[in-house]
Design brief:
8 strands, alpha/beta, binds flavin-adenine dinucleotide, TIM Barrel
Length: 309
């Protein structure tokens, strides 16, 4: 079964996890009764696992995906990047994934590590990676690619970004997984624009649950330059932890109260956002599970995502 078979018939619902750095984190995610096994109970169509820049966590990424595939409850999708990878190294790693039964990938350029100006590998863009994978492995992989509704932070224009997205399709990509986007007007504009450009690939929308103030600001601004709508800014301002949400020991007397009220408002915001996306006619919702269960399960259930299956 491929993600494309599902997307051909109906909207998909999936999760994203990341490989924990520590053994304790791995046990929490992959151990008996751990987060992965809890997530399976929600019957996601697939679970993807991120891939660290420069392949720093390749071992753990493979361990996580190996478990997903062996458990046989859902499809495992690996993220994969060009960062620091030679063509030979890419071939070896991808063959290893296939040997482990992992035949779905998200082909990315990758986030450039701090201070780097290029990928430091043989391939420079996701367009090249998609072409290379098709050349070397034919149709063995189902290939997703990233789409940036607000334009990638380094793109020279939204039009150029859309042209490169079309090139990913022409090179053999199957479907799009989107970058975080809270600006729904921009999203609708982008969806119309990619369809007008001849991009027919299904669009699986990435949603980061709004649970933590610092993580939300960090995700929006540290790399992606995401627009934060007024309503989201209000949630952040009303629950601002003084002096700021990034310090380890805030002097704010109501840190716990504010964290809880931020999370409650953030969850409501996330559910409403999923409704808005679904009303745009998108092809799937991809929830960043953040290696947690309770909050994402609540969101998935309240947003009606379990009924998609
Ligand atoms: P590309 O599509 O290659 O685009 C990068 C930039 O180059 C853009 O500005 C684009 O306009 C431009 N460009 C593209 N093609 C060309 C070309 N042929 N010639 C000239 N310019 C071009 N990063 C990780 O490191 N690990 C992960 O696991 C990971 N998971 C992600 C999951 C999702 C769903 C998304 C959306 C992103 C993820 N990222 C991850 C982040 C991603 O790697 C970064 O956004 C990265 O900066 C760009 O990757 P890309 O595949 O979009 O790059």
């Amino acid at each position: 079964m491929s993600v494309m078979d599902i997307l051909d018939k109906r909207a998909a619902f999936s999760f994203e996890v990341f490989p924990p750095k520590t053994d304790v984190g791995m046990e929490k995610l992959c151990g008996k009764g751990g987060v992965l096994e809890q997530l399976y109970t929600l019957n996601p169509d697939y679970i993807s696992c991120t891939y660290g820049a420069g392949g720093t966590n390749v071992g753990k990424n493979l361990e996580v995906l190996d478990k997903i595939v062996k458990d046989g409850k859902t499809i495992g999708v690996t993220h994969f990047t060009c960062i620091g990878n030679t063509k030979e190294g890419i071939k070896e790693q991808l063959q290893t994934y296939l040997d482990h039964g992992i035949n779905h990938m998200l082909a990315l350029r990758g986030d450039l590590p701090f201070g780097w100006t290029g990928t430091g590998g043989d391939l420079h863009y996701a367009t090249e990676l998609v072409k290379f994978v098709r050349q070397e492995f034919g149709d063995k992989f189902t290939i997703a690619v990233a789409g940036s509704p607000e334009g990638h932070i380094a793109c020279r224009s939204l039009e150029a970004d859309i042209a490169f997205l079309k090139q990913k399709q022409d090179n053999g990509a199957d479907y799009i997984m989107t970058q975080l986007c809270w600006d729904m007007d921009q999203f609708r504009y982008w969806l119309d624009a990619i369809r007008a450009a001849g991009i027919w690939m299904p669009v699986d929308v990435g949603i980061m649950p709004i649970l933590d103030q610092a993580a939300t600001i960090n995700m929006a601004l540290s790399r992606n330059g995401c627009v934060m709508p007024r309503a989201l800014c209000e949630i952040i301002s009303k629950n601002w932890i003084f002096p700021n949400p990034f310090v380890k020991d805030p002097f704010d007397a109501d840190v716990e109260g504010k964290k809880a009220s931020f999370k409650a408002a953030g969850i409501e915001y996330t559910i409403n956002q999923i409704d808005e996306y679904r009303a745009c006619g998108i092809n799937g919702i991809h929830l960043y599970a953040l290696n947690k269960y309770d909050d994402v399960a609540y969101i998935a259930k309240a947003a009606g995502l379990l009924d998609l299956i």
